[in-house]
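Encode chain A's predicted structure.
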Amino acid sequence: MTEESSAKRIGELLKQEMVNDPRFYFFSPDETTSNKFTAVYDVESRAWDLPIKEWDLPESPKGRIVEMLSENVLFSTMMGHLMNGEQAMMGSYESFFPIVASQLLQQIKFIKQSKSVPWRESLPAVNLLSTSVCWRQDHNGFTHQSPALISTLLSVPSDLVNCIFPADAVVAEEAFKFMLTSRDVVNFTTFDKNELPVYFDEQTAHNLFEGNGATIYEPLSDEEPDFVLAAAGDIATREAMEAVKILREDLPGLRIRLVIINALSYRAIGTTEHKMSREQFNKMFTTNRPIIAIFHGYPAALETIFEKYTDSWRLRVHGFSEEGSTTTPFEMLRKNASTRFDLAIDVAKALKFGELVEKYQKILEENHAHAIEFGEDLIK
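Encoded structure for chain A:
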């Protein structure tokens, strides 16, 4: 299985869009390089009207890469550009996107009001690229770990927000295309900047945006499952897939279904235009099997959506529970009870296999001890 950085692929797509559309602007609070969108500098310069030093990146007064360490100013400037009917995107660290939450909520109100005015034309979507995520801020620590804007956006009672969680770089490319063609909506797309496995082909990735926001991952799924595992987010998806492999090895007779969730909107799985129905949910998640989910953000955000579809007794959601530190990647997952072994423990507990629970807990403890002593994970 190949590995690729979603952020690097999106950087190439931003570069291509800069070439295709001379009015396209990219906004970023001095994080274009650290978020690995660096390819845009191959074709465009940073907006800069002061003396240029020899160590600077490409800069000019006419540059269309706008960087300033003020998310509020950048967002306001981008909104002026979008209100003129021209495309733009903004990228930032996930933990600092909540700085523009109030501005985003006001923009959602504006979109809602503008739809009732017959003479107003539709506008390009507000497209936000959220990376440097909570699960991989091992060198910055607790201050850089916050998926709070996801919860805020999913709580707004409207059909004007899509929260997108590409499972891999191929799906991230389809997300980028979806964002560019969207109108009168906010798209908040979250992905890691490091290399992660690629699971999907282009057609399957495309279908995620034409369908109801989720898909059964057939290579790791059985018919008539005993348990349904679900994942939303690229790192979450990897952990869920590894959990299935662990369970298949230790419980070979167990029947499992793995569902990958690509998009969420207000009280729904799927985008605002393609929300999953109750009937579709029952077909994908069954009507009575336990659902063990792992979510990129705060568990309550996904729990609220699932409870729209089914009874809460079926559900156990793992995610970021505000346990942060400057630590190794797998340890961040362990601190938030969101590893592959935590998912497997849920299944083992439900089946009353105490020896397996002990086995998985011991593995987690061993990784913790190793990470503290050597600064690296045993489990990759």
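Residues 354-374 form the longest helix (21 residues).
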